[in-house]
Amino acid sequence: MGLLVLLACKEKATLYVTNDKYSNSNENYEEIDTVLEKNDPIRLDLSKQQLFIDTTKTSQFFQSYYNWNPNLQHENFSYFLKEITKKFPLQKQDITNFPRKWITIEKLNGDFLIYRPCNGNTESFVITDEALYFFRQLEPEAALLHRVVTSNDTIFNATLLTLSDKNTVIQSHFSIQPSGMKDVYQLKYNHDAIVEEKYIIPMDKVIHFNLIVNHCPEDMVREYDNFDY
Q1: Burial of 186 (0-12, 13-18, 19+ CB in 10 A)
Q2: How far apart are CA 166 and CA 183, in angstroms?
């Protein structure tokens, strides 16, 4: 959800992704009114498309994050790990007191908020002792934990093994560290000529942030993308 900058090199291009935009893959998506207002969803007609800032902390939209129970048995995860473990077996790593469930957040007018897209999921991920499970907006993917370099209460650095676009196993670098803002961390993930840099929070900190909801019960609409970059 953010700025895409393509830097061309003679041999290989590196794509820098800063809170990559939520996908608007269908050009025929209906445009939305991008004026955001705080509102309680109880006062809205949720049979229609609604774009608003939910500050209630108790709505059905917030509850979906509080009650998040990720399915780590998804067929995409199974495929990724099956291909990787043909050459590299799963090995339990030592992770010390570090949060395991994370969610991406956005910055709007200097404030951090969670964005709930019309199509798909708010991007999130789970760290286990053996692998990372990325719940992308539309398609999940997994990476094997190859080596944990640093793990403590606030910092996590590791090398991962994942699949490239050509379906070969590649090594990548993954790190999480505090941003300097309360409860907000910075993620950096280098993989397959892509550098992802995002703001994230532990899932149990969702209650401290407001939620932008792009509610579309019927027709798909364009994703909101007027965030600070």
Answers
A1: middle
A2: 37
pTM given for the model:
0.86
Is 226 in contact with 22 (CB distance < 8 Å)?
Answer: no
In this structure, is residue 41 part of a structural domain?
A: yes
In a domain, 51, yes or no: yes
Query: Which ranges of 32-184 does DSSP label H, i.e. alpha helix?
Result: 60-66, 75-84
CA neighbor of 221 nearest in space, from 21, 50, 13: 50
CB 190 within 8 A of CB 172: yes
Confirm whether 179 is domain-assigned: yes
What does each of the 229 residues of the chain score in pLDDT, given as a tens digit?
443 332 333 333 444 444 545 656 555 566 666 689 999 999 999 999 999 999 999 999 999 999 999 999 999 999 999 999 999 999 999 998 999 999 999 999 999 999 999 999 999 999 999 999 999 999 999 999 999 999 999 999 999 999 998 889 999 999 999 999 999 999 999 987 889 999 999 999 999 999 999 999 988 889 998 898 7
Residue 209 contacts residue 111 (beta carbons within 8 Å): no
Q: Is 91 strand, coil or helix?
A: coil
Distance CA 47, CA 50 (A): 9
Structural domain harbouring 44: 4-215
Give how many domains the chain has, as a whole number.
Answer: 1
Q: How far apart are CA 177 and CA 67, in angstroms?
A: 25
d(CA 66, CA 69): 9
Q: Please indicate, yes or no, if residue 221 is contained in any of the structural domains.
A: no
